[in-house]
Write a structure and sequence with these properties.
417 residues; mainly alpha
Length: 417
């Protein structure tokens, strides 16, 4: 697990370095409004991708190691689902562009969505096949391309359009270099109704559960734009994105390495052995996240002026404690508490919980933003994620008991302080 974890960690750190460089450039050469528009379109495109594909990938990952399934059948199914969903989304975006006359936004959103969906498919296959080195190589190439293209387009005064097109091209060029499309063509198209039904039964409820959570930051941006202005959207995006990127990269790297092995142990050695592995996973997760979170809080005063324009520094530092708390609560639910439902393959009980959390976030945002401005967004989201954590643990442990090593958690907390 540690070997793959290091590869995945480095794979996640490379785009983080790119984001630092581009953040420093974009916040100096884009207006706050343009940066807000850039991050909103990016968030919408990636949210659509998550909404349309997450059910498939979480189900596929859960059953990838099933000995009754073969590589040709699985990859042919990936091709079929990828093609149909991309075409469906592009048609819908085309209709929206026709009705709203927002052609440029629809085009950039469609390009970003399609390239992100294909790149995600490529990396998901690498992760499921434990090709962590290939995963890392692809991320390094994409990061280098993203930085070079992003800097070039900004130098040519392409504003938010150039920033978005840089993401699209970097995704596409890596896939072309890795011969993703050529390799996938070998497997053709295939719809296995039994396999797809199995994946749908497991993945769709989990996907909706994650979508409710992942769309909260998107709804936040839309509400801020409606109740305040695009400047507030840009300020929120800067304050939220940096701690979110750092902590999510660390958490997802550990999860990518640990989750497949936990599933394998559960299937081969039983629940008791899986619980021991889960406990070790939680301890490692907290041992990495808590020092990182508190360390960021300490060094932010010196770090932020290097990473962003002066216009963003003060507000980002003011919002950092709330941003850190919000991201940390989200990570604890997604990467630990929700595993109780996933390991038990009983996802439906979590749907009502996360739907209630999303509704709470929406209502709280509407009530708090007029009085507390951007701070109200973080307060509302923290309340929603606390509901997920408490409710998720109480409900989830009925299906799969989650270990909670309080003494070890206390030791980690004290050591971090």
């Amino acid at each position: 697990m540690l070997k793959h974890g290091f590869f995945y960690l480095f794979a996640k750190l490379t785009p983080l370095l790119a984001s630092f460089i581009l953040l420093a450039v974009y916040t100096r050469f884009l207006t706050v409004e343009d940066y807000g528009l850039f991050t909103t379109i990016q968030a919408i495109a990636y949210s659509i991708s998550g909404f349309m594909f997450s059910w498939f990938y979480v189900g596929l990952m859960r059953f990838w190691s099933d000995n009754s399934l073969n590589e040709i059948k699985l990859k042919a199914l990936v091709n079929s689902v990828l093609l149909i969903i991309i075409l469906l989304v592009l048609i819908c975006l085309g209709l929206w562009a026709f009705m709203s006359q927002q052609i440029y936004i629809a085009v950039y959103c469609g390009l970003l969505f399609a390239s992100a969906a294909c790149y995600e498919a490529f990396q998901r296959i690498n992760a499921m096949e434990s090709h962590s080195q290939l995963y890392l190589q692809a991320e390094i190439r994409r990061t280098i391309l993203l930085v070079l293209l992003g800097l070039a387009f900004i130098a040519l005064n392409y504003s938010w359009q150039g920033a978005l097109f840089a993401i699209f091209l970097s995704n596409l060029l890596v896939l072309w270099q890795q011969k993703f499309f050529l390799n996938q063509l070998k497997f053709g198209l295939l719809f296995d109704k039994i396999l797809l039904s199995k994946i749908l039964h497991y993945g769709l409820p989990l996907s909706f559960s994650l979508i409710f959570l992942e769309t909260i930051p998107v709804i936040d941006r839309l509400l801020l734009a409606e109740l305040l202005d695009l400047k507030a959207v840009g300020q929120f995006a800067i304050a939220y994105n940096l701690p979110n990127q750092i902590l999510m990269i660390l958490a997802s790297s550990i999860n990518l390495a640990a989750y497949p092995s936990i599933i394998k142990i559960l299937e081969t050695q039983g629940e008791f052995a899986a619980k021991q592995k889960l406990e070790n996973y939680l301890i490692l997760l907290l041992a990495v996240l808590l020092p990182a979170l508190l360390g960021l809080q300490v060094i932010a005063v010196d770090l932020y002026p290097l990473l962003m324009g002066k216009e963003f520094v003060t507000i980002s530092l003011e919002l950092l404690p709330l941003a850190n708390l919000t991201v940390f609560l989200f990570i604890l639910y997604v990467f630990y508490v929700s595993l109780a439902f996933q390991l038990a393959t009983s996802i439906k009980p979590s749907l009502g919980l996360v739907a209630a959390a999303a509704l709470l976030s929406l209502v709280a945002n509407i009530g708090l933003i007029p009085s507390f401005n951007i701070e109200g967004v973080f307060i509302a989201n923290s309340l929603a994620y606390v509901l997920c954590l408490i409710g998720g643990y109480m409900i989830g442990t009925r299906y799969f008991p989650l270990p909670l090593p309080l003494i070890d958690i206390l030791k980690i907390l004290l050591a971090s302080i």
